[in-house]
């Protein structure tokens, strides 16, 4: 006696007309997932590179800012610092840096001159941006620091001089879905030594400050 249904199963086993369509239907979700993940990773890497460039350019500009002649030490003001941070926002362009992130500029100086103890202090610090986060490496007034920055990449200041340290904390905006990106937050740091003589005793024009002291 023939069991009902067996001929149908044998015919289905021999059927090849929809094989390609079946394989496409099975493989399409995997292909889409790989494609979207690749696009998200690419966007994340590009965004991180842009944030890194902003931090580096900001540190370099901070090390150069100030006014004065070749015969006198440069002076800096709150206006200079405000212009510095405004320029960083313009450089970031479509990233909308201050709406999605926070920029922290710190002035690192040695505790003494000569600095025989190799210790440093954060003399002043300025921030801008509505993003969450504060400096991971100290705040204004901290002293006795061994340096500033992540382990292995710490910044130091020369005797009688200063180093400008920048930290940028940015909340990543996904292209497709945040879960496909390596992280929801991008943090980049950069530092530059002040190369010109600078008056480190005071910041002028404090009453016109348009940025927070962190």
Structural class: alpha+beta
Rg over C-alpha atoms, rounded to the nearest angstrom? 28 Å
Largest beta-sheet details: 4 strands, antiparallel
> Helicity, in percent?
25-40%
- The count of domains is 1
Low-pLDDT ranges: none
Estimate what percentage of residues fall within beta strands: 15-25%
Sum up the overall morphology in one term. elongated
Distance between the terminal alpha carbons, to the nearest Å?
88 Å
As laid out across the biggest beta sheet, the strand order is 2-1-3-4
Number of helices: 4
Q: Tally of extended strands?
A: 4
Overall pLDDT metric: 87
**What series of H and E elements makes up the topology?**
HHHHEEEE
Protein name: Pilus assembly protein
Summarize the model shown.
The chain is an alpha+beta fold and 214 residues long. It has helices at residues 6-14, 19-64, 78-92, 97-100; strands at 101-110, 120-128, 163-171, 185-193. The relative contact order is 0.19.
């Amino acid at each position: 006696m023939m069991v009902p249904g067996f001929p149908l199963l044998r015919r289905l086993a021999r059927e090849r007309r929809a094989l390609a369509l079946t394989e496409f239907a099975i493989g399409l979700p995997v292909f889409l997932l790989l494609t979207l993940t690749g696009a998200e990773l690419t966007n994340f890497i590009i965004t991180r590179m842009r944030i890194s460039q902003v931090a580096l350019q900001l540190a370099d500009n901070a090390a150069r800012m100030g006014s004065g002649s070749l015969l006198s030490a440069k002076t800096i003001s709150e206006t200079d610092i405000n212009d510095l941070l405004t320029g960083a926002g313009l450089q970031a362009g479509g990233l909308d840096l201050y709406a999605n992130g926070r920029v922290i500029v710190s002035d690192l100086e040695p505790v003494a001159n000569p600095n025989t103890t190799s210790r440093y202090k954060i003399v002043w610090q300025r921030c801008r941006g509505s993003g969450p986060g504060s400096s991971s490496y100290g705040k204004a007034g901290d002293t006795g620091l061994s340096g500033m920055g992540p382990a292995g990449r710490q910044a130091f200041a020369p005797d009688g001089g200063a180093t400008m340290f920048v930290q940028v904390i940015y909340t990543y905006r996904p292209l497709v879905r945040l879960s496909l990106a390596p992280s929801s937050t991008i943090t980049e740091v950069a530092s530059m030594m002040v190369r010109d003589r600078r008056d480190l005793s005071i910041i002028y024009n404090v009453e016109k400050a348009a940025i927070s002291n962190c």
